[in-house]
Please model this.
Amino acid sequence: MTTSLRDSVLSALQACGVDTTILDHGDLRTRTPITGEELFTLPADSTESVDQAISKAHEAFLHWREVPAPERGNVVRRWGELLREHKRDLAILVQSDAAKTLSEAEGEVQEMVDICEFAVGQSRMLYGKTMPSERPGHRLMETWHPLGVIGVISAFNFPVAVFSWNTALALVCGNTVVWKPSELSLLSALGAHALLAQAVTDCGQPADIHHIVLGERAVGEQIVDDPRVALISATGSTRMGHEVAPRVAARFGRYLLELGGNNAAIVSPSADQDLALRGVVFAAAGTAGQRCTTMRRLIIHESIAEEFTEKLVKAYRTLTIGDPRDEGVLVGPLVHHTAFENMQEALRQAEAEGGEILCGGKRVMAEEMPEAFYVEPAIVRMPSQSATVHQETFAPILYILTYRDFGDALDLHNDVPQGLSSAIFTADQTEAEIFLSARGSDCGIANVNIGTSGAEIGGAFGGEKETGGGRESGSDAWKAYMRRATNTVNYSGELPLAQGVKFL
Ligand code: NAD
Model:
């Protein structure tokens, strides 16, 4: 097993065009959560090499910003083609880094292909508005320009998709990119980056428009503090966002934050229960609870709570937990020992706060794989939304809370510090509309009759409150990677002042 995992990762790296001579050198360890074994070591970037990467990206920007946007789009188109071609190879690397099932890992690469296609179209749609001027013989309009170097800092659980959301758009908008992937997901990062490098070469564009820098949080901090980096797009925990935001703000840089979630679904008495059940199980237990959009709270009407909970517990007992490479496995391991400890601590606290563990929470396969952390997804019935329920624990724990009045359900729903994703299962149109209205869900994503996870790239992705307020991916998220200039052109031959002001 050990050899075959290392071998399949090695051939996937080679297929993606990674320079494998760097493997087994350096201090960065690449450990797979699937078995817990260390696969390779890699050299970390030094302060000097990070500085050099930023310098080169900055220099490349001075040229890249002048390349016509549709031509910039060609690089992203080519990247999308290569990603499509190497979907399986990159998925193997994602699987090794993040322990996803192959279907989910391939889905992550598909998301990259999708955003590339979206960004290619966007490269011809960097629209600015024209507004009527109040002065005769004047034109008033806005134009959009690239920002400069974009620093992308990403999390382990979507090791490559989030990079592509940022990079595909940043590049077509005329920026250059320096990427610091998570120290927990370096191999898939190398694969994704090598495919981009190939696309850049194939299109005859300068290699320096994108850089990858490897290291732990100190490398992230260096990018965060560098004034040549115009925008920091950081994805990760709320703790990380709390550290990053004030540092970037202190130098008047821009930031785009995609942080933790504490996502809930309301299940109303009118809901199609079978549909709700499937939606809840996928969102709560899928990816072993390690999605930012994982459903962590179920707010269910008291009249159906018992019946639904019974069905849910039954469904949880059928989930196959195991090596995500094996056919039929639905739930892989947690990323590391600390994640397991955090889950155990949350369960202990929940019990101390009056919670009742209805199923799950135990470690499995510990004897076969002592360095890997497989757990049974847990369901915990809570008497109230206690302190533990307010936190994001990055593990498969679903807290069940009940409500009597719809208004109380909404209050419970919004009464957490995070605001990423949300859902309601209902056949009552009024409830659905209220949930989507200003007095409904306060999250960046609000769904009806679909779970909290599994967003499409066409919409803007992100959340409110402690989730950070950033938006990435579709819709008009491209604007975050550009600066807006308002232009007034006077072709009147006179010099009338706005608001009728007279001077000279
Ligand atoms: P993390 O915060 O531990 O690390 C994320 C990245 O930030 C890593 O690359 C890390 O090296 C870097 N980092 C950490 N501290 C830093 C600092 N002070 N300065 C600069 N860089 C720093 O997160 P993680 O454990 O990798 O990922 C899980 C978390 O990410 C969860 O909270 C999850 O909800 C969140 N997440 C959010 C989204 C979203 O779109 N909202 C998407 C994926 C993950």
